Amino acid sequence: MGSISDPPLLTNFTQLLRSCPTTSSSSSSPIQNADMAAPRECELPVIDLGGLSSECEEERQSCAAAMCRASAEWGFFQVVNHGISSELLGEMRREQVKLFETPFESKVRSALLDYSYRWGTPTATSPAQFSWSEAFHVPLAKISDLSCYGQFISLRGVLMEFAAAMSRLARTLAGVLAENLGHHRGRSAFDETCHESTCFLRLNRYPVCPLSTEMFGLVPHTDSDFLTILYQDQVGGLQLLKDSRWVAVKPNRDALIVNIGDLLQAWSNDVYKSVEHKVTTNEKVERYSVAFFLCPSYDSLIGSFREPSVYRKFTFGEYRKQIQEDVRRNGQKVGLPRFRLQTST
């Protein structure tokens, strides 16, 4: 049984199931054409960021090289000694839990976090496009706004400190990845283009799911940004595609997870990989996470760091508009393939 804080996910999913005539009645799983074997569990590459501040040039270069190698081979890596205290992370989690325990009707109708509450997948046209989750999707520019918090005023200070720390970390990591490819401006390039109005935090909750564990907590997707940093609990459920097979990410209590987004893949000319990932549900325990997304201004031009380019130049605004159009038409994102240049053979 769900609580009064839970969104009506089961009702919504059941209606979608009934309205989709192509869905087989013999299968309750939204996953289609997937490898149904249990995915193997993996531990992502772990990067000790203490190496970046080492007095030894060799250690600094080794740390940067490991990060770049993981970005090219996995599209994902973990960071430890990242500079965000366990106390702040713990406060963030406690405030997040209190926020999501608010009755569903209050979350939907209130002005909490700039009316940013979302649940399920309104654009889904089939069960395979449905996410069993809820979230607050908050632009950084709104985080200091007192009117966004109502009774949750204690959340404001924690969220401001957390967002600032994640933003600094994201820009540092993106700068290292850029410098490794020979970009002379490194971090400053992201400082100039990534604004509070387009960078955002997403506070996620994945309620207990009474359906199959094959149900999506978050449907397979790539991130439409430069870089994402994820703070997750120990429940697990994050999976990513590695060598065309899904692998389950083993939670690491001391680490934050970093993944490459579409924009950095395009900018790096496919050197760094924006990898498809998803979240599965849990039949017994809910899951929490917070993601920070490093995004440029909408008029920022995304072009390859060197020629010949794999992709045509495009703005972030153009990219978002194309994604929204594809989702409206097909129920799902297409992403970078829309912008790949055709090469003659």
Task: Describe the structure concisely for a colleague.
The protein has 345 residues and is of the alpha+beta class.
Question: What does the model show?
Answer:
The structure is a single chain. The protein is α+β, with helices and mostly antiparallel strands and 345 residues long. The protein has a single domain (38-309), classed as Sandwich (Jelly Rolls), CATH 2.60.120. It has helices spanning 9-19, 57-73, 86-100, 104-109, 112-115, 153-180, 187-193, 262-267, 316-330, and strands spanning 40-42, 46-48, 76-80, 117-119, 134-139, 200-206, 216-221, 227-232, 238-242, 245-249, 256-260, 277-280, 287-294, 301-302, 314-315. The strands form three sheets. The protein has an eight-stranded mixed β-sheet. It has a five-stranded mixed β-sheet with strand order 1-10-9-12-7, with no helix packed on it. It has a two-stranded antiparallel sheet with strand order 14-15. Helix 3 crosses helix 6 (153-180). The model is unreliable at 23-28 and 31-35 (pLDDT under 50). It is an enzyme of class 1 (oxidoreductase). This is gibberellin 2beta-dioxygenase. It catalyses: gibberellin A1 + 2-oxoglutarate + O2 = gibberellin A8 + succinate + CO2.
Break the fold down into its secondary structure elements and pairings.
Layout: H1 9-19, E1 40-42, E2 46-48, H2 57-73, E3 76-80, H3 86-100, H4 104-109, H5 112-115, E4 117-119, E5 134-139, H6 153-180, H7 187-193, E6 200-206, E7 216-221, E8 227-232, E9 238-242, E10 245-249, E11 256-260, H8 262-267, E12 277-280, E13 287-294, E14 301-302, E15 314-315, H9 316-330
Parallel strand pairs: 1-10, 2-3
Antiparallel strand pairs: 3-11, 4-5, 5-6, 6-13, 7-12, 8-11, 8-13, 9-10, 9-12, 14-15
Helix pairs in contact: 2-6, 3-6, 6-7
